[in-house]
């Protein structure tokens, strides 16, 4: 049997590299946690600014008379991608395994303000459809983070639909958030369970498959 020589130098190099990677991971992890706390604070400030801007824009749009529909269409095209990008940030906060560590109360304030802004933009969309006679496919998605086995599946289905149909607007609302605006919408559309969806103004309680949603949209 051939005796294998042990390359201690190689083992030492591997040990040093492993230690560096581990230490770097800890430092990066701590930095990310602090970054998340700072990021939420910045996002709260952004939402306050967006809310004030939205209110100002609505007042401005109401004075434009015959040009209102053209300007409103451009405004919708401009603000929807920004809303969706911010929604992805909120989703990352929510799915983070250490969300409790970087301020759950502050995150809840962020989430609620974001949903209020979503509802404001949804009312703007409905107003555009009614006043300008140009329909836009929109879906309100009511979900719960507690005891909702199908909510994750419904979210994945809606993400797939959005990916294949970028023009569809999806407004995700946490049904058990106790926000009065969300409760009013849920009561209006008789939402009795989660997940539930309101597709172009028509409510559907329970999980919907991708084919079901696509069929509803075609109608």
* Structural domain count: 2
- The rounded distance between the terminal residues' Cα atoms is 77 Å
Shape: globular
Low-pLDDT segments, ≥5 res: 1-34, 97-102
Nearest-integer average pLDDT:
76
Helix content: 55-70%
Describe the strand arrangement of the main beta sheet, using strand numbers. 2-1-3-4
Rg calculated over all Cα atoms: 23 Å
Task: Please report the total strand number as a whole number.
Answer: 4
What composes the largest sheet? Answer: 4 strands, mixed
Helix and strand element order: HHHEHEHEEH
Return the structural class: alpha+beta
Number of helices: 6
Strand fraction:
5-15%
Report what the structure shows.
With 219 residues, this protein is an alpha+beta fold. The N terminus is likely disordered. A four-stranded mixed beta sheet has the order 2-1-3-4, with helices on both faces. It starts with 7 loop residues before the first helix and ends with a helix. Helix 4 links the parallel strand 1 and strand 2. The protein is built from six helices and four strands; from the N terminus they run H-H-H-E-H-E-H-E-E-H. Helix 1 crosses helix 3 and helix 2 runs antiparallel to helix 3. It has two domains: 99 residues; 83 residues, Glutaredoxin, CATH 3.40.30.10. The longest helix has 54 residues. It is globular, with a radius of gyration of 23 Å.
